[in-house]
Amino acid sequence: MALEGTVSLCLACGFCCDGTLFNRVPLLEAEVPALKVRLQVVDGQHHARQPCPALDGTACRVYAERPLTCRRYRCLLLEAHEATEVSLAGAVSIVEATKALRATLAAARGHADSGLVVEESRAKRAELALDAAEALERLEKQLAFHFLGQRSRQSR
Ligand code: SF4
Ligand code: SF4
């Protein structure tokens, strides 16, 4: 595994923290007290909302203390890169293509481009104009194919 490539790829991406892929991060009960000030922990539950408030650009502000779920998580693209099936340049180009799809969705919604626009669009799926609905569908196919596979998009 190329740790340097892993860090570089994830710093070019951030989709598993910014709301593009997930809307929550599961937490261990023991993690809640230490992280509830820095993450958006849902009252009475063991998960934090995304987009994650600890995300600074594409970097994690609580990296040393991040939840176990975050430590363990590997999307399909990262797994493929670590298995040397996809070069760093190839993986970053997939991330950039995905960001372009998200930007198209944001433009169709008239919103700023961020992971938030993905979650908002999913929540209002039935009300989306045709261009936004098509942009969301293209983005979700891209996320499923390159990042999620069969995993749920609700949480990691
Ligand atoms: S979605 Fe994958 S490549 Fe992107 S930051 Fe998360 S683990 Fe890294
Ligand atoms: S704690 Fe850090 S690694 Fe985990 S979701 Fe938030 S920004 Fe991402």
Description:
The structure is a single chain. With 156 residues, this protein is mainly α. 48% of the residues lie in helices and 6% in strands. The strands form 2 sheets. The chain has a two-stranded antiparallel ribbon. The chain has a two-stranded antiparallel ribbon with strand order 3-4. The chain is globular, with a radius of gyration of 16 Å. The structure holds iron/sulfur cluster (2 copies). One iron/sulfur cluster binds next to helix 1 and helix 4.
Total helix count? Answer: 7
End-to-end separation: 21 Å
Number of beta strands? 4
Low-pLDDT stretches are none
Radius of gyration of CA atoms, rounded to a whole number: 16 Å
**Topology as H/E string?**
HEHEEEHHHHH
What amount of the residues lies in strands? 5-15%
Q: Characterize the largest beta sheet: strand count, sense, and whether it forms a barrel.
A: 2 strands, antiparallel
Structural class comes to mainly alpha
Strand order of the largest sheet: 1-2
Bound molecules: iron/sulfur cluster
Outline, from the CA principal axes? globular
What average pLDDT do the residues reach? 91
Helix content: 40-55%
What keywords describe this structure?
binds iron/sulfur cluster, two-stranded antiparallel ribbon, 6% strand, 156 residues, mainly alpha
Topology, element by element:
Blueprint: H1 3-11, E1 24-26, H2 32-35, E2 47-49, E3 55-56, E4 59-60, H3 68-72, H4 76-82, H5 88-109, H6 115-123, H7 130-148
Antiparallel strand pairs: 1-2, 3-4
The chain binds iron/sulfur cluster (SF4) (2 copies).
